[in-house]
From TrEMBL:
The Transcriptional regulator MlrA-like C-terminal domain, residue ranges: 1-72
InterPro entries in the record: MlrA-like_C
UniProt organism field: Salmonella enterica subsp. enterica serovar Sanjuan
Source organism, top-level taxon: Bacteria
Name of the featured protein: Transcriptional regulator
A Pfam family it matches: MlrA_C
Length: 77
């Protein structure tokens, strides 16, 4: 699980707990990334938390990565 451009890492951990309650087995990257490069996590399923409201740019980029076949799941959407 990765936080992308967020400031409240407490919410990141809470979202990780929610995901684990939904059956995901997760590891949480403890610090938010300002630049997210999913190619560094090739072959991994990525849960991405962008905060309460994803920006339009984040939404478009997540959709583009999924269209490329990356296993990325936005949380809190």
């Amino acid at each position: 699980m990765i936080g992308w451009n967020i400031h409240d890492t407490t919410r990141l951990w809470l979202e990780g707990w929610v995901a684990s309650q939904q059956g995901w087995r997760i590891d949480v990257l403890a610090h938010s990334l300002s630049q997210f490069r999913p190619e560094l996590f090739d072959g991994k399923t990525l849960l991405v938390w962008c905060g309460e409201n994803q920006t339009l740019a984040q939404q478009q980029q997540l959709l583009a990565w999924r269209a490329q076949g990356r296993d990325i799941h936005p949380l809190g959407v």
